[in-house]
Amino acid sequence: MEITGPAERKMMINALNSGARVFMADLEDALSPGWSNVIAAQTNLRDAVRRELALETPEKSYSLNEETATLVVRPRGWHLVERHVLVDGRPISASLFDAGLYLFHNAREALDRDSGPCLGPYFYLPKLEGRYEARLWNEVFVAAQERLGIPRGTIRATVLVETILAAFEMDEILRELREHAAGLNAGRWDYIFSLVKRFRSRSDMVLPDRAQVTMAVPFMRSYARLLVSTCHRRGAHAMGGMSALSRTGGAPTSRRWHWPRYARTRSASRVTVSMTWVAHPDLVPVAREVFDRVLGDAPHQKDRRADDVSVEASDLLDVAVPDGRVTEAGVRTNVSVALQYLDAWLGGNGAGGHQRPDGGCRDRDQPLAALAVCRHGVALEDGRTIDHDLYRRVRDEELAKLGSGGGHVRQAAAILDDLVLAEEFPEFLTLLAYSHLD
Question: Are 298 and 354 contained in the same domain?
């Protein structure tokens, strides 16, 4: 059972004390990478490894329990740079900066303190597109261990398979990471975006409203089944997707308050995987209940082979969604969430909750995939065509609803226009937005 969140002091203490077995400190999706945020995150990680993480507020004192979750760090992806640090006059890779700084300050300390079933420190690697990027990470780990004088294989990493290209190379990714590989994790939103991005010129690959693209639709189910069967065949851990829902109001002790979240988490916590993850401490006991009931005293279920699973390339690319529809309400939700995400991100908060029309809330849900329909002239269910004029009208109406927001909504709208209206579809939203940060 894993919980994730930003490397922010209060959130880290609550997550490490949550009862989850693992806390993944997110330096990627949950981090707005202004320089002060980046350095604060590394400082908090250093204090957490040494069990010195604490916080005093007027309302409460926060400190770590005697027993805490195991710390895992997610560095930024290979596509990003850290422009505040130059090497030979050029910005350093954000991946190397995040991982390198963490290892330099904490690898020996983490190794000396670790009492788990395998060595540490632990990483969680995002955005890989294939075996060559996995090979590069392996070379980084080998070089770091040699430089720090710690045993080879000390570092362990789980790879988030969140790109369509990586889905075709799961075996190869595990092979390239060799003794550093811990397992693979299934994603959802970035995986969907990756598929849309790769096939953006094909009108037959357009997906319906994102709420309809669940893990149960054929191409997503095939991807998840392939991941589990690949991991278990190779003796690696298979990890399920995250319930990214979080509290938007009401009493946190009220079971009725978050019953829909309980139900969705139970559904997401497939018993064929060894672990799942959540974004809110209230969901930890729910997900643990599912796994404890199935696993009992067993640490994992890697022995549950799925040799009967047969997934072909065509299964991974079959994007037909039964009764799939594209609606104006869906487009409107995507525009609103994108504006809210960017508004928070530009304000220094990478982990803001973004309100949905149904009253729910999803953290760090970047809606680029569904926005791509604006680029295809897709027909709505009522027969109208999604074009730039419709997008501009929806954008203006959603801006009016948000008002001043966090103070960056107009800037957010300009960045969103660059995404939707530009000739070339950007690889990532954050590439457009990064230049706007201090």
Answer: no
* Mean pLDDT for all residues in the chain: 83
Residue 359 confidence (pLDDT) above 70:
no
- Alpha-carbon distance of 243 to 240, in angstroms, equals 10
Given the residues 308, 358, 382, 389, the one annotated as active site: 358
Mean pLDDT of 198-208: 84
Domain carrying residue 432: 328-436
Q: Which of 249, 283, 314 is the last residue of a domain?
A: 314
Residue 112 designated active-site: no
269 within some domain: yes
- Domain match, 196 and 342 both: no
282 and 410 inside one domain: no
Asked if residue 200 and residue 116 are part of one domain, the reply reads yes
Catalytic residue among 9, 26, 74, 362: 74
pLDDT band at residue 256, thresholds of 50, 70 and 90?
A: very low
For CA atoms 161, 239, 8, 251, give the dihedral sign.
positive
CA distance 369 to 206: 9
CA–CA dist 34, 39 (Å, integer): 9
Based on the residue annotation, tell me whether 74 is a catalytic residue of this protein: yes
Residue 151 shares a structural domain with residue 300 = yes
Of 4-18, 135-149, 152-166, 418-432, least confident by mean pLDDT is 418-432
